[in-house]
Predict the structure.
Amino acid sequence: MQLHRITPPLDVAAVGALRAGDDILISGTLYTARDAAHKRLCELLAGGKRLPLDLEGQILYYTGPSPAKPGQAVGSAGPTTASRMDPYAPLLMEHAGLRGMIGKGPRGPGVVAAMKRYGCVYFAAIGGAGALLAATIRSAEAVCYEDLGTEAIRRLEVVDFPAVVAIDAQGQSLYKPSTSA
């Protein structure tokens, strides 16, 4: 296991160098998106329409930050359960070039297969540590779907956002021992 400092956008080679269990510090841009936003993005893709943001090489953080207090970019910004995005994640990898996802909990076999096929990695962030994670966020700006409130898609600028590679682009997972030879 290694410590990697990464800055999105990521390419397939950068994602391929990461291994399950590696510690990660992310600096640069992350985008937030939860269930309702994922549904809207995938409806656009299914209809052959353009997305309202460029996800090529980007990382989606599954969070809906609470409102910011004075002097903060956001309030608490802990990860949500990633499996709720499983119906949508493969389409975003295939058609939008998504390279990373941050959440908590395991992913389904269809998502892991898509990660291997399209070169994507799943990072886990510590659930229950939303206030600590928010301290790494320097700015936040809604970029689309503001009608979703805290679940709008936001562009976050982060410095040393901590995560661990939970499932790598080869399908190795911290949640389930490898069955490959």
The mean pLDDT is 95. The longest helix spans residues 35-46.
